[in-house]
TrEMBL record:
Catalyzes the cleavage of glutathione into 5-oxo-L-proline and a Cys-Gly dipeptide. Acts specifically on glutathione, but not on other gamma-glutamyl peptides. Glutathione depletion is an important factor for apoptosis initiation and execution. Acts as a pro-apoptotic component of the unfolded protein response pathway by mediating the pro-apoptotic effects of the ATF4-ATF3-DDIT3/CHOP cascade. Its EC number is 4.3.2.7. This is Gamma-glutamylcyclotransferase. PANTHER family: CATION TRANSPORT PROTEIN CHAC-RELATED, GLUTATHIONE-SPECIFIC GAMMA-GLUTAMYLCYCLOTRANSFERASE 1. One of its GO terms (biological process) is apoptotic process. Belongs to the gamma-glutamylcyclotransferase family. ChaC subfamily. It catalyses: glutathione = L-cysteinylglycine + 5-oxo-L-proline. It is found in: Cytoplasm, Cytosol; Golgi apparatus, trans-Golgi network.
Length: 191
């Protein structure tokens, strides 16, 4: 079984796997429209995490993990708690296209998607409002800022050819609110 991750699964899968591939799925856009009151937020201050929205012209980059044998049951049990029970996500199969040039056929992969029907769904907001909500939210897995920055770093370093305007606009809004979070190499050399 292959499992596609497009949020925190890209850097912290939390389950054993046999192999992993960076690549993308078509027909979806990644959006910070899902609320999180456990991992990256609380009941009083829900965090914002990503989900996928159907978008026929778009593609979403992430990581597909191959699980085999005993890994299958263990990983699905873990993800059903992490994503479905705690996160309000449903499962779906999608075609995953590996980044590797020699990949011939897409791989069928399981993906977890939070729909607007789940109780934690927050829906659209401006990038500034999403960034402001992320700044004040923290949960048992850590601060919501870490979630945003790790996802942006993953995209920047592993998928430099990919465009994710929504993600990078939120990161930019966050840095305009908290400019002390970012240091360029030049500014570090000056100090």
């Amino acid at each position: 079984v292959w499992i596609f991750g497009y949020g925190s699964l890209v850097w912290r899968p939390g389950f054993e796997f046999t192999s992993r591939k960076v690549g993308f799925i078509r027909g979806y856009s990644r959006r910070f429209w899902q609320g999180d009151t456990f991992h990256r937020g609380s009941e009083k201050m829900p965090g914002r995490v990503v989900t996928l929205m159907e978008d026929c012209g778009a593609c979403t980059w992430g990581v597909a993990y191959e699980v085999r044998g005993e890994q299958v049951a263990a990983s699905l049990q873990y993800l059903n708690v992490r994503e479905a029970v705690l996160g309000g996500y449903d499962t779906k199969f999608v075609e995953f296209y590996p980044q590797e040039e020699d990949a011939e056929e897409p791989i069928l992969a399981l993906v977890y998607i939070a729909t607007p029907q789940n109780p934690s769904y927050l829906g659209p907001a401006s990038e500034e409002d999403i960034a402001a909500q992320i700044i004040v939210s923290s949960g048992c897995a850590g601060h919501n800022i870490e979630y945003l920055l790790r996802l942006a770093d993953f995209m920047r370093y592993f998928c430099p050819q990919a465009e994710d305007k929504h993600l990078f606009s939120i990161e930019e809004a966050l840095t305009s609110i908290l400019p002390c979070l970012y240091y360029t190499e030049e500014s570090l050399e000056e100090t």
